[in-house]
Amino acid sequence: MDPTARGRGHGARLLERAESDARELGLTEVRLYTNEAMSENLTYYPRRGYQETGRRTEDGYRRVYFRKKISPAPFKI
Fold it and tell me: 55-64 long-range CB contacts below 8 Å, 24 or more apart?
């Protein structure tokens, strides 16, 4: 990531959008993964409410998987 882009809330907005889209689709959780080498992500996602669910090596990448339970969208009449 470009260092000048850090701390401007771009990551938070992307996660909020993913969670909002999932909620509108009636999903109950959001899942994601990151490369284990991206150590800042390993602390960032838990701060945003994500729980680590596993680690695997796939296609030569050491991946760390996360999920976050979300509440459904309010019912609209």
Answer: 61/35, 62/35, 62/36, 62/37, 63/33, 63/34, 63/35, 63/36, 64/33, 64/34, 64/35, 64/36
Residue labelled with tokens 């996602």 = 45
Range of the domain at 50: 28-71
Q: Give domain status of residue 43, yes or no.
A: yes
Query: Is 63 a domain residue?
Result: yes
How many whole angstroms separate alpha carbon 61 and alpha carbon 34? 9
State pLDDT tens for residues 15-74.
999 999 999 999 999 999 999 999 999 999 999 999 999 999 999 999 999 999 998 777
pTM, entire model: 0.83
Q: Per the domain annotation, does 32 fall within a domain? A: yes
